[in-house]
């Protein structure tokens, strides 16, 4: 279980309101976060991943303290084993599809399985600028999964996918997340897009 | 025509560029991450050779390298190394003089990369060094080449600093730019022209090569 009890100052608002979040995410659960731009959705994901720090509070994952403002504990992102799918994909322009996954893991069978899941097995030698938007987005998801994360954070992960691929990918991804027991938090502004995932919904609009 | 000044110049430029690749890259990376007063001061010091008259820099380096004072005295007393009027002294002076040409472009290129590239690498468990080596550095290749060529070309054209530190010792510190000056002083314009043409040709070819390389590095937008 991952327990998040933090306070974030939102820089996008002039009067700098803060966002207080006190939430438990059960192991293997899927949580969807909705809310308008600037409401702190991405900031929350980055803080959980260790890519940013909250103003105060505590984050504990399976009994390990990742962040504690009081005790000045802030575990580096490298030690949190969190998969992160960036809204901008953040793919490495110098690496091919295969190299992206090999950079993340040395498990060849797992790479094969992932390539099949993302339907990228015929594009292993392509670099990101030779992939379509949807293919890039799938690669970003596969790369995050490659480390077999304890927690998967996805920021608008399906926005560039066409409906047919989205349906297949979400169904298979959901199965995989359940099999691996990966706790998942998905940020989106489109609730309909995430309907197939099931799970709990947190609406950020009411939290600011 | 005595070719030794040309070879000496190429040797000096080559060694300076290699040393600056080793020193300048980690330094540019460090400077590219965040801002602090100490980084601003250090960056200003590195940039000084761009705006200072070479003779001023050469004068202070001459004082610093002198076996009678500070660093020069310590090196002389401890390791029996003399920097003034020697090739190692020229290398050290060239490294200091050409540093902004290596550090500046590399630092700017690193700052222009989206922060999410490094962040993605960190979430994959990679250290800062692995991220720099396998993600950041390969994605600034054109800037890296430009920086290396600019450093090389700038070292080829050094005059004031090398004259102050190295003087004009044939085969030791007499680089091509000094040979041009020396030939003009002796009214041997034909020889001065020969050295100048060689320097002009080398730098022109280098600059053209960089332009062509950068043009054909048809990179897609970084995503």
TrEMBL record, chain A:
InterPro entries: AAA+_ATPase, ABC_SmlMolc_Importer, ABC_transporter-like_ATP-bd, ABC_transporter-like_CS, P-loop_NTPase. It holds the Pfam family ABC_tran. Residues 4-208 form the ABC transporter domain. Keywords: ATP-binding, Nucleotide-binding, Transport. One of its GO terms (molecular function) is ATP hydrolysis activity. This is Molybdate transport system ATP-binding protein. It comes from Mucilaginibacter gossypiicola.
Automatic annotation (TrEMBL), chain B:
Pfam families: BPD_transp_1 (PF00528). GO terms for cellular component: plasma membrane. One of its GO terms (molecular function) is molybdate ion transmembrane transporter activity. Gene3D superfamilies: MetI-like (1.10.3720.10). InterPro entries: MetI-like, MetI-like_sf, ModB_ABC. CDD domains: TM_PBP2 (cd06261). Belongs to the binding-protein-dependent transport system permease family. CysTW subfamily. This is Molybdenum transport system permease. It comes from Mucilaginibacter gossypiicola.
